[in-house]
Design brief:
With 129 residues, the protein is α+β, with helices and mostly antiparallel strands. Helices cover 16% and strands 41% of the residues. The protein is built from one helix and five strands.
């Protein structure tokens, strides 16, 4: 899944700031919030590639490398891994820049699979490019 931890791989799909409401009981950013940001990022990239609606059907190989704190800037990068008849698989990396610094690092990565769907929720073929 991981190529190099020096630079992000893929296209920037989402950027957000971790806020106090996104914390777990210990005061760190809740892993579920980070997972949801990555799902939004991958889903955005998949929707563009599929030219329409997509739905998340799987998340695998999630790896949480570093903690995320309130005020951190979280940037999610999506890289297309595989195109099936109705599905798209993306590697999504979440990179963090600590507030008031230029330091950035990969905090999390995972593999997300989306299926292309019609407006009424039925599977549809992914357009071939």
């Amino acid at each position: 899944m991981s190529e190099s931890d020096d630079v992000p791989h893929g296209e920037l799909s989402l950027r957000s700031i971790a806020m106090p409401a996104d914390t777990n009981p210990s005061g760190d950013i809740f892993g579920g919030w980070l997972l949801s940001q990555m799902d939004l990022a991958g889903g955005t990239a998949a929707r563009v590639r599929a030219k329409g609606r997509v739905a998340t059907v799987g998340v695998e190989r999630m790896a949480f490398h570093q903690r995320v704190f309130v005020g951190d800037e979280v940037s999610c990068y999506s890289r297309l891994l595989k195109v099936g008849r109705t599905s798209l698989t993306y590697v999504v990396e979440a990179w963090v820049r600590r507030q008031d610094t230029t330091t950035h690092f990969k905090a999390t990565e995972g593999v997300f699979t989306f299926v292309a769907i019609t407006e009424d929720g039925q599977k549809r073929p992914v357009p071939q490019e």
